[in-house]
Recover the amino acids of this structure.
């Protein structure tokens, strides 16, 4: 007897943003295929993931610049084969006197590359709705009020003696002194919000400090996860599976942390934040991946539900009768469009702010593929609010 499981999925997206003097657009298709077999207690698996992207800019004066790329990675039993890739680009400037070809691609045109999929998913053959035709540039995240009253020259001891405290010491004191971690949650986040990457790393690279975060929020463990995630702002790199986190925990069977440049996807980032602060172990991540990868059940295991339907963010609901809820810190925030699984998940941090790892939005700081603190309204689609990851952990699902 042998058990064979096959899984295949694809997703597509199209964005268009206008600026003074022209517009830019991007269309992407990505896919994933896998097969796993269990025969006589021997487990084997193989799969591949691919991505095709075309993007460009068109100016009102007739100039244009575009590029198209395709890549594919394949693996078998945890070992990766050499990756494949192909790219093409073009440009046109009516002011130039040298021979040129104005061949900017039209919307819905099939890929021009040899290896890219020619039968594009039907979604990209339909022009976007007018309301989606202009991709509004994301707003800069507004700092919480606590930043206004939380002085830069916070010093040790009464009367200002003892000199300036380090970032790590400030975090430690907010966790352990005065009103305690739960009462100081907003202040802790405010401190993290304006810290540098180097300062945050003094905490994330200190296992005792990360465990202190977990222990200080023991009566409300859902608060520890977003704090740990926000400390990773600017770290990691977004990539769909298979990626570094899969290789590290599923096949590596390790309790060690990943490098700050390691790849992972959105839901894996939330798991990884819980791992760093000691809420789950590497073995728990491995067991979770063993039972859900590559079936696509990760988000449902973490708390996403279609029946009963999760409540919607009040301004991003499906219809007038949809149940609504504002997220609380630690809640998982799902971005959906009526598909079987959400396209993205982030973790609620403060008000409408979430910690997110994805290739969107581009806040103009060069970190769109890194962990970001963004506003819910920086991403399109319906938004649903699910329970914190700690509920799934408590229930033994992770």
């Amino acid at each position: 007897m042998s058990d064979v499981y096959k899984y295949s999925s694809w997703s597509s997206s199209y964005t268009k943003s206008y600026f003074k003097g022209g517009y830019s657009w991007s269309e992407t298709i990505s896919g994933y295929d896998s097969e796993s077999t269990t025969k006589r207690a021997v487990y084997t698996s193989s799969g591949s993931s691919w991505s095709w992207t075309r993007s460009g800019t068109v100016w009102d004066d007739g100039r244009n610049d575009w590029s198209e790329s395709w890549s594919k990675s394949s693996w078998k039993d945890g070992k990766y084969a050499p990756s494949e890739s192909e790219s093409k680009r073009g440009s046109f400037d009516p002011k130039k006197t040298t021979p040129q070809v104005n061949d900017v691609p039209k919307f819905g045109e099939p890929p021009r590359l040899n290896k890219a999929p020619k039968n594009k998913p039907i979604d990209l053959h339909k022009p976007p709705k007018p309301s989606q035709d202009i991709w509004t540039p994301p707003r800069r995240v507004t700092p919480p009020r606590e930043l206004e009253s939380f002085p830069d020259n916070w010093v040790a001891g009464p009367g200002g003696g003892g000199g300036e405290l380090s970032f790590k010491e400030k975090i430690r004191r907010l966790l352990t002194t005065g009103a305690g971690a739960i009462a100081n949650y907003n202040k802790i986040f405010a401190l993290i919000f304006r810290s540098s990457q180097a300062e945050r790393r003094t905490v994330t690279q200190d296992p005792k400090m990360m465990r202190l975060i977990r222990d200080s929020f023991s009566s409300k463990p859902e608060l520890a996860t977003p704090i740990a995630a926000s400390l990773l702002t600017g770290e990691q790199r977004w990539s769909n599976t298979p990626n570094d986190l899969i290789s590290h925990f599923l096949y590596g069977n390790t309790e060690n942390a990943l490098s700050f440049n390691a790849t992972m996807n959105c839901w894996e980032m939330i798991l990884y934040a819980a791992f760093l602060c000691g809420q789950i172990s590497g073995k728990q991540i491995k067991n979770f991946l063993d039972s859900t990868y590559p079936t696509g059940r990760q988000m449902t295991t973490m708390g996403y539900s279609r029946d009963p339907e999760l409540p919607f963010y009040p301004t991003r609901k499906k219809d007038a009768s949809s149940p609504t809820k504002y997220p609380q810190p630690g809640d998982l925030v799902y971005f959906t469009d009526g598909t079987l699984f959400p396209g993205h998940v982030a973790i609620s941090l403060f008000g409408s702010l979430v910690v997110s790892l994805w290739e969107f939005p581009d806040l103009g700081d060069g970190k769109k593929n890194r962990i970001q603190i963004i506003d819910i309204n920086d991403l399109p689609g319906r938004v649903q609010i699910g329970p914190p990851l700690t509920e799934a952990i408590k229930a033994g699902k992770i």
In short: Residues 120-140, 146-161 have pLDDT under 50 and may be disordered. The first strand starts at residue 2 and ends at 19.
